[in-house]
Amino acid sequence: MVILSKLEQEYLLRSIESGVGLADLRQFFLWSQGPLQALLPHAALLCMELDGGGALRRVECLRQAVLAPSALAQLEGELGPALARAWRVGPPQPAVLELETPDEPAGAGGALASCREALRRSGYVNTLVHGSAGQGGGAHGSAATVFAFLGLPLRPGARQAWFLQLLLPYLHLALLRLGAGEGARVRLARALSARELAVLEQVRAGRSNEEAAHALGISALTVKNHLQRVYRVLGVGNRAHAVARCMELRLL
Length: 252
Description:
Elements: H1 6-19, H2 25-33, H3 35-39, E1 44-50, E2 56-63, H4 69-88, E3 95-96, H5 116-122, E4 127-131, E5 144-150, H6 158-178, H7 194-204, H8 209-216, H9 220-234, H10 239-248
Helix pairs in contact: 1-6, 2-10, 7-8, 7-9, 7-10, 8-9, 9-10
């Protein structure tokens, strides 16, 4: 039995309250970086939707850090599907990769044992996976979802698994509401410039205006001016909303 602290109860309640009305990828990203991050700190979150037969329909990778295209392709095209397959053939409960021991028998490692090498290559060894349908999924034609929290600061245990079980219904319904490709239907007043997108990549990596300026070889004031123009184009008011909006529009 997991006994939650008063602070954990507060975080859980905030996560549930703010997770009820999630309707687009921008809101989903902000939620994952707010109350959800407080309960389940992670570097990246893979959200996968599957059809009734277990075939992968879509993958959304939510993360703050900038990833090289090859690294993102590995997460979405290799690691995510592998984790979803491994979890679905195991028991329908949160899964972690069990620790290796010198006398570990062949096949040990839990439900995610087959993904051990892929996880090592990705650098996200501390991983927690759970979904809405195990043992081959639900009824034919019904959608299933699998969520993989990657890069937890410590190896997840019973407490983190319990948090994920409580929040799974909100994750599941939010992902199904997003609608694949909805961002592509939105039209901006103008396209963002290459320099504006470069500034946003720096913001997404968590860098300050001064740090972004140093990385790009421009002044902090120029970075600030770029951001102000970006806010007007995207219709947002701050850095976090700008990054989330660009993710929704598939600009980053």
